[in-house]
Amino acid sequence: MAVVVVLMGNLGGGKAGSASAKTQTADHTHLARGTSDPGRHASGQARSTTTASNAATASGGPPGTAAVPILMYHVIAAPPPGAPFPGLYVVPSEFAAQMEALKRAGWHAVTLDQVQAYWQHGVSLGPGKPIVLTFDNGYQSQYTQALAVLRRLGWVADENLQLTGLPPSQGGLSQAQVRGLVAAGWELDTQGFSHADLITLDSEQLHYQVAVARSTVQQRYDVPVNWFCYPSGHYNATVIAAVKAAGYTGSTTVVPGWAHPAEDRYRLHRLRVLGETSPQALLAEIASIRDDPPAPASYNGA
Fold first, then answer.
1. Residue 255: Cβ-neighbour burial (10 angstroms; 0-12, 13-18, 19+)
2. What is the spatial distance between Cα 236 and Cα 241, in angstroms, rounded to a whole number?
3. Could you write out the DSSP letters of every residue in 238-295?
4. For residue 28, which of 199, 212, 232, 167 has the smallest C-alpha distance?
5. Using an 8 Å Cβ cutoff, are 143 and 73 in contact?
6. Number of helices and strands (H, E) in the chain?
7. Residue 268 near residue 251, CB atoms below 8 Å
8. pLDDT one digit per residue (tens) for the chain, 302 residues
C-alpha cells in the first residue's frame, strides 16, 4: 500500500498543537506512506467500549470537576519524501517514547465515555492523572503501530473513524482492524463519511455526514458512538445543532486546551501532537494549555 488519503486542515507548526502557530487549511491532501498489517488481530470476542450510561451504574458520587486533556494523533509512521503535511506523521519510536513519558509523569489513558461518566456521575477515573488519546481518520498505522504500544501499557484510545475516502488500499483501516481495536477496548467514534467541511453543507448533506454516519457505525460495529469529531475542526451553530440532534453526547475540536466539565461538551479542546515532538516537549505543551479559554462559538480554520 503506497498512498494514504486524508482530509485535514489547520495544521500547526513544529510543536504539539501550538496555539500560537499559524495554521493552514487543506480540503484534500494526500499523504504517501507504506503500511503493513502484522496479521495479528486482537483475540477474543469484540466488546463495546464503556459508555457514560452504563458506567453510571457503577459506584459514583458528586459530579467530577477536574479538567482532562485530549491528545490528537493521525499517522503513526515516518513521513515519506515530499509529504505535504509531514507534521501529521509521528514515527512509532517517537510515539512509544511519548506514551512512556506520559506514564512516568503519572498519566493514564481513559475514553471520552469514561470522562463523561466522571463529569456527570462522579464515576472514578482511577488513580493518577487521566488523559484521552484520540486517533483521527482511521489510518492502518493506528492498528499496526499504536495499538501494540498502548496494549503494553494497558491503555485504550478513541478512534475517530472516517467511513469513506481512506480505503485499506490507501492506508486506511479494514473493517476487521476496526473490530480489532474495539476488541482491545478502544472507543469507536466518528468524523462522518468523507471528512467534508461541515459548515459548507446544506441540511440534507449535514444530516448524512453526522446522523447517518453515526447510525452506520453503530450498526456495523455494534458500538454506541457517543462522540463526534469535527473534520478539520470546522463547526458553527448549525453544525453543533445537527450533532446534538443526532444524539451525540458531545464533540471534539482542534482548538488547543484541556476539556473542562463546565464548558460546552460540543466544543471540547484537543491538542494536536505533531511529528518531531519530544516527550519532554509534549509534557510541557500539555501543562502550558491547561488554562486556555473555552473554544470559540464557531471555527473555520482562521
1. buried
2. 9
3. HHHHHHHHTT-SEEE-S--SEE-TTS-GGGB--EEPPTT--HHHHHHHHHHTTTPPPP
4. 232
5. no
6. 10, 13
7. yes
8. 333 434 344 443 334 444 333 333 333 333 433 333 333 333 333 343 344 444 444 567 899 999 999 999 999 999 888 877 889 999 999 999 999 999 999 999 999 999 999 999 999 999 999 999 999 999 999 999 999 999 999 999 999 999 997 777 778 999 999 999 999 999 999 999 999 999 999 999 999 999 999 999 999 999 999 999 999 999 999 999 999 999 999 999 999 999 999 999 999 999 999 999 999 999 999 999 999 999 999 999 98
What is this structure's pTM? 0.84
Cβ(190)–Cβ(214) below 8 Å: yes
> Which residues on neighbouring strands pair with residue 299, listed in sequence order?
235
CA distance 259 to 264: 9
Q: Report how far residue 186's alpha carbon sits from residue 84's, in angstroms, rounded to the nearest whole number.
A: 29
